[in-house]
Fold these 2 entries.
Entry 1:
Amino acid sequence: MAEKRGRTLAEKVWDEHTVRRGEGAEPDVLFIDLHLVHEVTSPQAFDGLRLAGRQVRRPDLTIATEDHNVPTVDIELPIADPVSKTQVDTLRKNCEEFGVRLHPMGDAEQGIVHVIGPQLGLTQPGTTVVCGDSHTSTHGAFGAMAFGIGTSEVEHVLATQTLPLRPFKTMAINVEGTLRPGVTAKDIILAVIAKIGTGGGQGYVLEYRGSAIESLSMEARMTICNMSIEAGARAGMIAPDETTFEYLKGRPHAPQGAQWDEAVAAWRELRTDADAEFDAEVTIDADALTPYVTWGTNPGQGLPLGESVPDPEQLGDEGAKFAAEKALSYMDLEPGTPLREIAVDTVFLGSCTNGRIEDLRAAADVLRGKKVADSVRMLVVPGSMRVRKTAEEEGLDKVFLDAGAEWRQAGCSMCLGMNPDQLEPGERSASTSNRNFEGRQGKGGRTHLVSPLVAAATAVRGTLSSPEDL
Amino acid sequence: MEPITEHTGIGVPLRRSNVDTDQIIPAVYLKRVSRTGFEDGLFAAWRGDEQFVLNVEPFDRGTVLVAGPDFGTGSSREHAVWALMNYGFRVVISSRFADIFRGNAGKQGLVAAQCSPDDVELLWKILENEPGTTVTVDLAEKTVRAKDFSAPFEIDDYTRWRLMEGLDDIALTLRHADDIAEFERGRPAHKPVTLPAEQSQ
């Protein structure tokens, strides 16, 4: 028998949601507090319910929005792509039939599923959150256990409000020190992924800890947890603290009155015990970090902006070398080229990684009074209609428009190019999104992942840049 | 789900690591509302290349895909599993699978068999030297065989049992409906609900 020891944050949330412990090889049955639904991964799940004659067990713990497919211009018109339209219409019909609340296109609360959950105050510490989308890890920034699931699991949660799962392993990501000016949460997470690789987090929940994490805003914490999946992790978490409570207080679905005090008291317990042990640990020195950009076709292929495109021959193992050769060929890059000399055609500011109001403010501060280079097209796509409205109240839309950028409606947009916002074959982007996979932003498109600050500076200079280059 | 205890079919060597789900099926192919017909999007970006393995006889009739490490990373899209199965694949062998992909595969009856990197390399060589070689994946024995090659593979026991019995996950969970109801009664009142307050009472 193992000695009784303290528990990690992840273990505490898991234990609190265990409906039933599995015996032997059987998984645990885990209760799900919040199920977020969107149009792409849900139609087959609702169809499955219908075929089996099942209902949605807890419509009151389920919420839907339209985000992946939606156009970001002319949203008052019918969706031009008939197949996208079918998917959106199907979601509307399903939500009506099964009694699920929906924030459709044009609604004041419509937006990317991972932006609206926190914004509405639905994402709360110590909850379990799932969605048929891998970036559900975003919600872990609140100390929630949040992870992406497939469509069969979406159906399972709709029918039972639970999931059969084996407990995840735990990994501590210690980020100690103070970030230099111009270095952001995006740079932290790109550095983490470059360090542990796209498979490094597999089977784990990552808990981001340390002084650099504690000093981050909620929005920055969401950026970090969002990309946990790019390290292969099931989820990412950050222990809730005063910053978390401050963010949540007064939000539409946050507890109120006596329930607020009760909730905060419970949330304060959500910390990894001093004598808890993680299955693995990684440390990142925040003081040493500089802006990071990716050069390849997976998010682990990243380097500080000050460096050059790597030479595959210099990379350690055969696998990494082979992958780098393939990546450089696809990206049309020569080893040794300084990253700062890479010219881009498009800059995309948005997504569930960096489409929140703070991200737009940071980019606008860089762009204010400047112009997007003639050779560059810049798309600014707010993560939600509320982010868009707030930005307009602050005059950020004017800053972007004056600089020559496009100011769009809310949605996933060019992060995955399911709507018309796509790169042309051979086009190169600096993108604040989360995936630089081949063809992710459009067939033949080439993506460099960057922070909002780097995106804005790159838009002005036309080559990968940080604000200090301006 | 159809029970599966053993499968034999033509092996397809896919010498690539980090085959993410955007490569398996790009987002533009995700717009159907059914579970079928996704084979047209399978490896869409690579299918245009006539040298691509699935464009080469007899690999185009393959049912066992043998891929490099970190297969199925990225997006949670179950469409990746549907696309592979719609095309005809019943098994994917890799030295490392992304967690969500592996979960999705298990739900749909696609066997995700994890072999050592050395065994994947050996299988690639066999399949490349003699195209059309069949690979047998035996769930009861947890072994992969091709000609005189035989190697163990890993799969979690619960998924293996479900695959072999062809069991529906939801029905299995609903055996514990009483436990779920009891858990719900004990949930703290401060937990969030999605409906407006007046409807959620």
Entry 2:
Amino acid sequence: MTGLFGYWTVIATLAIGLYIMIAHGNLVKKVIGLNVVQTAVILFYVSFGKVHGGTAPILDERFEIYSNPLPHVLMLTAIVVGVATTAVALALIVRIWESYGSIEEDDIVRAELVE
Amino acid sequence: MTDWLHLVLLIALVVVALDLARLRDLFAAAMLTGFFSLLCAVYYTIVDAVDVAFTEAAVGAGLSTVLMLGALSLLDERVETGRVRNRIGALSAALAVAAMMLYATPDMPAYGDPTSPVNQPDRPAWRYVHQSGKEIGVPNIVTSVLASYRGYDTLGETNVIFTAGLAVYALLAGVRRKRGQDAE
């Protein structure tokens, strides 16, 4: 496989996530877009940790070459923190639904203007 | 064989992401994010990031989807979502970002290049791979980096999770109280 194809996929995924966040007025869809962007970043980091001919970074006498473990560690943290932000965002959305009766951005802005 | 699998998986990822951009039904979108995470987990397995793969499968595909479905169930009725506004502005912003990053990709090391900057002997990863067996004594390098070399990082992470848990509890406690009053 050509060396840069992985990067192009990451770029495509990130651009799609960004589009979802901007274009969709629905707040839950915005959170989903944020998740897609986050996944694109994780894909990027994990794919440059790969070393040709290497195996998973678990020490064993039979192997000499391992993938780079540092991106893996950083991305473990990123995945867990990402879920934490998703949870807080969804809780905020539930509160917004309670207060405004809608989770569409347009409706919320209009309700604010009326007040 | 692996290259072929790679190509199929990466294309599938982009197709699923495109479908997410198109979907209007929130329930379907929540389920599709679970599938998206699962595809990512398979990809992480074939690029040798096994620890990331099972975390993504458990936390990304499992917990995230459950959280999203839980939130949707709290939004009383089935929320209709339809309005896509500012399509041209969003598209041009996304394309501008993509173009800038495409411009930068030729400078990146090729996929799997053993001589890329992150794999040089003067980088921390070199020490983790070659010394952690002696220094820490745990076969899994990811574990020894996570719990020992970068232990403070993990401590900070648990703080983030704790704070997020408190925030969710504080936000949703009010909702439950209000629901209870309505029922009375």
